[in-house]
Amino acid sequence: MARIAVIGAGMGAMAAAARLAVAGHRVAVYERGTTYGGAVRRFERAGFGFDTGPGLLHLPAVYRDLFVKTGREPLESVLELSQVDPAARHVFADGTAVSLPNASRAGVLAALDGALGAGAGERWSDFLGRAREAWDRTRRPLLEEPLWPDWQVLGRDPYPALPKRGLFGRRRPGTDGTLAEVARRELKDPRLTALLESCALAYGFDPRTVPASAAVLPYMEQTFGSWYPRGGVRALADALYERCLDRKVEFTFGAEVTRVIEADGRAAGVELRDGGCAEADTVVAGVAPERLTALLKGAEPWGPEDVRPVAEESRRTPGRFTVALALRGPRPADAAHRTVVHAADPAAELAAVFGAGPGTLVDRPTVTVLRPDDPASRPDDGHEAVTLSAAIAPYGDLARTPVGAEHPDGVRPAAETAASAAAADRLVEAAEAAIPGLGERVLWRAVLPPAEGESVPGPALAGAGGRFLRPANRTRIAGLYAVGGWTHPGGGLAHAGMSGALVAGLIVNGDDWRGSQ
């Protein structure tokens, strides 16, 4: 039985901890905050409840596997999970609206043809067919296996090019450029372009610079579906935490790790801010790369031949500006769980979120409206809980909105400043396209700016010379592993769960392990 110290209690760290405990190891988790789950949090007040991190689960098979492997119990035995249908309703800048069915390619094709005109659905379906090729080429190396030592081969974009007219046939894969270029060349409709680019934005990617392989993101959602746990996505974090406790994982909250202890060239434990030390045979770090470097007192966790983290990337990844709305009046039975109200000026929004300017919120940004049909989110059926969110730059007034007292689940609602109040008003105004008369129904609202460290990058992507890959889970220091959204295979609920599986696999099976076959 090895002693394993885990730094942080995010979803990836807890997934690793549960698997390692089942393998017979003694696992202790040290979390500097007051709760678990990382960015998967929930804000509750006066009988209303709101997810403040991810609002839906994609690729639920990752967590189904985790719960079976750590307890021979299906995920659904501890969590009520249901498909969201429609998967999303989209309201475009010209007022056109379309509801896309969940996990039905034929249904999506028909819906797009009906709303956007004949041919729109076929163009989108053809695009998803090419996205599937990219998914098939990268699913194992970018989701199910530890990062390859020869990771440079993943720098080539797997998205297939369109056939060229004339004698020269198909262009070689890897010559397609960015996702925005794919949208312009293949979709030929500003509303389909908005549909595609909003998916990239939701994952924190700039469609003007992210490689064409990001096409796997809408493919993944529309193929495997969107799922909602009763009680919100926070209920998934609760279930995983309880599974860890059942497997005798020890948690210490309010315990900030200040140093990874090294002895004889390998990780040997952690040092805490209160002066205590915890000896360990292996250390798993669920923290951002710059913090891991600080815990190593400036030493680099990865060697020059490895994928290197982008300097201060965590400070440049867009966050989500969130407004929780408590509404009077019942939720209509036909209301969509998720509605995306698209920006009036997408170019201006991308410049505001990713540009070098002050990081302001445009007048009508892309707003995601979440309206779960969940009794756990409201005090009674005469009220409704609605969450609005928009991407914001990780700098500027909104990202620095002062926060109030910490909620038991780690959420810090903000006292509204002039800037945050104006931004919240813009979100409510934009969301009127999804909920007519929204402003008149508001009982109260809470502004929830992104907390420091909450913004994580999107999933790892092939292409662009490897710039969108994440550092390997195995570091250059023996016995030290990295887990979570900042490392392979990147951010997102499913990818965090797979990160935990990969780290546990490496520790249990050895550093030459290549993943489950």
What do the pLDDT scores average to? 90
Helical residues, percent: 25-40%
Shape: globular
- Give the low-pLDDT segments: 165-169, 171-175
Structural class, from secondary structure content?
Answer: alpha/beta
How is the largest sheet built, in terms of strand order? 7-6-15-16-17-14-18
* Main sheet record: 7 strands, mixed
**Rg computed from alpha carbons, rounded to a whole number of angstroms:** 22 Å
N-to-C terminal Cα separation, in Å? Answer: 26 Å
- Number of strand elements: 19
Strand percentage, roughly? Answer: 15-25%
Would you kindly provide a written description of the structure presented here, covering whatever features stand out?
The protein has 517 residues and is an alpha/beta fold. Helices cover 30% and strands 19% of the residues. It contains 13 helices and 19 strands. Strands 7-6-15-16-17-14-18 form a 7-stranded mixed beta sheet, with helices on both faces. A 5-stranded parallel beta sheet has the order 9-2-1-13-19, with helices on one face. A hairpin with a 5-residue loop joins β6 and β7. α1 (11-22) packs parallel to α8 (234-246), α2 (61-69) packs parallel to α13 (493-509) and α3 (105-116) packs antiparallel against α4 (120-144). The radius of gyration is 22 Å and the shape is globular. The two termini are 26 Å apart. Mean pLDDT is 90; it is low at 165-169 and 171-175.
